[in-house]
Amino acid sequence: METNTKPKHLKFFGIPKILPFLKNVRGQILMMVALAIVSSLVDITIPQFQRYALDTFVGQGTLATIIPFVVCYVAVILLAAVVNYISCAQATIVEMKVNRDLRQTGFQHLQTLSFSYFNQNSVGYIHARLMSDTGRIGGLVSWWLIDCTWRVSYLVGAVIVMLRMNARLALMVLTTVPVLVVLFAIFQKKLEDVNHEVREINSKITGNFNEGIMGAKTVKSLAIEEEMESRFTDETENMRRKSIRASRLRGLFAGTMNFASSVALAIVLWKGGYIALEELGTFSVFMSYAQGMMEPLRWLVDIVSDLITTQVNIQRFTDLLAVRSDVVDTPEVTEKYGDCFHPKKENWEPIKGDIEFKDVTFRYPDGEETVLENFSLKIPFGSHIAIVGETGAGKSTLVNLVCRFYEPTQGQLLIDGRDARERSQLWLHSAIGYVLQTPHLFSGSVRENLLMGNPNATQEQIWDAIRTVSADEVIAHLEKGLDTDVGEGGDLLSTGEKQLISFARAILADPRILILDEATASVDTMTEAKIQAAMEQVTKGRTCLMIAHRLSTVRNADLILVVKNGRIVEQGSHTQLLAQKGYYRELYTRQYEDEATAKILA
Amino acid sequence: MAQTEKSPQKKEKLSLLWQFLKGAKRYFLAAVLAAGVTALADMLQPQIIRAAVDCALGGKEGNFPAFVMDAVNSIGGFPYLGRHLWIMALAILAVAVVQVVSQYIFRVYNTKASETLVKSMRDQLFSHIQRLPFSWHMKNRTGDIIQRCTSDIDTTKNFLSEQLTSVFRIVILLILSISFMASMHGRLTLIALIPMPLIIWYSMHFHKKIHDGFTECDENEGKLSAMAQENLTGVRVVRAFGQERSEMDKFTRQNDHYTSLWVKMAKIMSRFWSVSDIFSGIQVMLVVIFGAYFCIHGSLTEGEYIAFISYNSMLVWPIRQLGRMISEMSKAGVSIDRVAYIMLSPVEADEPDAVDAPMDGDICFEHVSFAYENAPELLRDVSFSMASGTTLGILGGTGSGKSTLMLLLDKLYPLAEDGGRITVGGVDIRKIRTEHLRKNIGMVLQEPFLFSRTIAENIGIASPQTDMQAIRAAAEAAALDETVTSFAQGYETMVGERGVTLSGGQKQRTAIARMLAQQTPIMVFDDSLSAVDTQTDAKIRQAISEKFGKASIIVISHRITTLSAADKIIVLDRGRIVEEGTHEELKQGGGIYQKIYEAQSGLQEVAV
């Protein structure tokens, strides 16, 4: 689980790893740093006005220089405002731009990753890497930079001014600093540990909420509400106790820091009181600086804790970028055919649609078992292959290989007689139509979804495709016809409607090779019949690989491959396989029963 | 849901907040008191400096309260202090100790208060959710509820524990520093206060105005996030259609748009900060200039002047924050509403005279009719009975109401007053305590939910007394033992996100084992054997009838082989019982059952 990622110690909190993303905003960053210095100088200057007022106005009892005083004062205030305006705006802009570039890079990288990555990591996990982790990095970088520059330069500036006003007194005030550094060293680690603990428990509680809500129905039927509650209460009590402990520690630290600033004040009064007799103003601003100096030191603790938190985000994000795809086009192939963002279609050979597995041995990159061993099969253009087996038996393996979502561990996959690796992934993908078990549409209009198959399709072609799969009725029912929005993931349409539209999308793409992953989900009989008819239309004149559930599909296939526990256990035509009286027959019987039963009960 | 949701009454909301605050109130009180002490100590420091400057060093009289003067005189008077400044420095440290201690107390008690509060909110919410009726859970989306339980709780907590206490602190600080300032110089205080309302007003006005901008940013972030989500879920389609480029373009466009919105916001917010800077800068300047003026004219001493500037600087930040806080507090209202929606939904309740009736009697459905909310009638006048210790088979198509029958039996949906009645051992289930009823009815739902605990814990979850032996026995009966022992950590294997992902069939069998471990007198298998193959199905049924022979068992299935051993079978069609009898009777009854029986056994001739 993501929340369990332990903060590994990266050099400089991992910031060097994101330096490349700061290149685009180099100018802004330089400006931010410069302005932060100016801003701190202004903040050091302002108490000097108070000093002047005390020493000159009050000390000499005259307001003679009041006009230049006000002019200067207002000028400094305005300068501060302008400087702060620019640096605040720039900081947010840098933050947002860095985040944008991180997301952009992450997204682009994800488009090129192989399927093993998507199979091993849940969508939620990847999504969090792309959206939440990136969101924290930019903010840290830009604000940290401003704060750090401002504080360091304020600290240095204040010390210099104090030294110039009265070196002896300044040095005495500075004796508090080493004490503070020691305190910081003592508290820092402890504070970070409790912070980490509190975060952990917090994410656990969120997990418990998740479970309590998602499993609510089961909890009810088991009548274990009380058990769930007592577990939950234990966790929240733990949280409460740890948080209070954390606050004790933080309170202790903040307290000592505040006390140190009073010590500085006391030193000024004790050893510097005599100054007040002559230069009251100097005395008064000395106190301001002595106390103001403590602020940057206090800040140090907060920022280290932020850095440690963000380090985890940086780690996770850079880990994502470090993942390499298992399926990569060779440089020569990319040179000739282009990559997935910049295809060189002029060099693409037309595809015929012959597929051949030649002595293929295959093991999933994350698996231990070899699922295909020296498997050879010729699938000439136009033939229909059905793959059958129970859910989870590994029916997708062949499809994954044909689509080059994975590559054979040994042996070759030939497309039109040539190794698939000799041409680009996009070249192959452009020739393959894919109709999924759970049809996936993208938010946008029906038309936009159909055009995914062929961006240049004319109105006429679109309607032809729709009529071929008899989706015209579906479209007619939609309020805005083709321009109706289908909602996120197509959720505004029913499964049957989505299925028909995804067929039409496949037809528009006019692929030579078609992969069909049949739906197991039950749709009503009318739709079922329509989908059946549509399927026959779609598969005509194409090489077809079907992960099959429907009897008609299975029976009419040229070849049936039977999969069990990840391996192909039987293969042959429907009649041959039935005659074998083996596993296929058993599967088929069950299928048949289920279908007959469903028909009678409908 | 969100649209039709009624906003709870103000009174209800307040009493809800009050209820959440239970146990936290005294901590809050202590925190506020400590904050008061801190503020008072904050006020003393400038007074010491003033005494040092004016009296100890400057030799002036100084109008301090009598007790202060007495104390000073008892040491040796101000001139003595002027020669021994370390005493005044010690006084500063003494005040600092009070400050630090009270600050520490404030911090700890404020955390105690807010953590007690958040715990009480979470506990009450969790417990309430557990007790909300089944129908409520069917109606409300999981994601939405979770959001209410996490981010809305956080907002409510921040409102009650941070914003509210901050406002208290600020108000205390304001009152104290203004009165200290006024006690030194009335006119100068007035000058210092004149710009204050303007600063507060400007900040409030701004934060209200900018709210829409934030909403727009949030919406666009949502869009961007949804886009990424869709791309990741549809990764196969994207690849298969070679859509990487166009997906990238779409994402880039939205990413840029979202970023540009923030850039716009950044400029607006920075402008706000700068203008506020100018306001407060000018305010400080006014105090510096007029203070100097009054000093020259003798109505203000130098020490008072310095103290005045200190007090004024204590005001600047709180005042600037006040506007933001007030405007942010209004936002908390929305979150409180969203939490209240859950807390004010009525929970399941038993009738006052509900009893723990024996559950091993006959089960009777008498003229049961039922319709879901806003849906046509699903069950119509269903009557049947099953003797204790027998097995009942139910056959029916999707939407025939067979699962609903079981939900009614478990009181997961209540039967309407005029909807007939269900009895166990002759007692109407309406009169049986719900927890007792459910503890005695084991039920395996169609989509079983497992908890993220170990397999052993999952099996034993509803039967706390069960030992490992009983857990294994249940797992064996559910044909699960072999699978589990093949895992490296066996029964200690974690299930779910942090552990192994079980297949549909394995989950199903774990749920069956969980039910068997409960050893309930009534067991319901709602189509739960369909995810396992025929042989395993037979094995499980065999084991159950051997080990749990005394239980009344209800099996819902499409498989004739599963149903045939039942003592009685009923066939449901469109909410009515159309056939009833034993396998032997029904297979020749000329109805649906016979047809299905023939379809499932007469296959050989059809297929080959």
Percent helix of chain A: 55-70%
CATH homology superfamily of the domain at 1-185 in chain B: ABC transporter type 1, transmembrane domain
- The order of strands across the largest sheet of chain B is 6-7-8-3-9-10
What is the helical fraction of chain B, as a range of percent? 55-70%
**What would CATH call the architecture of the domain at 1-185 in chain B?**
Up-down Bundle
List keywords for this structure.
heterodimer; A: 602 residues; alpha/beta; ABC transporter transmembrane region fold; Rossmann fold; 2 domains; 10% strand; disordered N terminus; B: alpha/beta; 6-stranded mixed β-sheet; 10 strands; 64% helix
Structural commentary:
The complex is a heterodimer of chains A (602) and B (608). Chain A has 22 helices and ten strands. Chain A is elongated and about 115 Å long. In chain A, the strands form two sheets. In chain A, strands 6-7-8-3-9-10 form a six-stranded mixed sheet. A four-stranded antiparallel sheet of chain A has the order 2-1-4-5, covered by helices on one side. The longest helix of chain A is centred in the middle third of the chain and has 54 residues. Chain A has two domains: 321 residues, ABC transporter transmembrane region fold; 268 residues, P-loop containing nucleotide triphosphate hydrolases (Rossmann fold, 3-Layer(aba) Sandwich). By secondary structure, chain A is of the alpha/beta class. In chain A, α2 packs antiparallel against α3 and α2 packs antiparallel against α10. Chain B is an alpha/beta fold and 608 residues long. Among the domains of chain B are: 185 residues, ABC transporter transmembrane region fold, CATH 1.20.1560; 159 residues, Rossmann fold, CATH 3.40.50.300; 74 residues, 3-Layer(aba) Sandwich (Rossmann fold), CATH 3.40.50. In chain B, 64% of the residues lie in helices and 9% in strands. Chain B has 23 helices and ten strands. In chain B, the strands form two sheets. A six-stranded mixed sheet of chain B has the order 6-7-8-3-9-10, sandwiched between helices. Chain B has a four-stranded antiparallel sheet with strand order 2-1-4-5, with helices on one face. Classes of the chains: A alpha/beta (602), B alpha/beta (608).
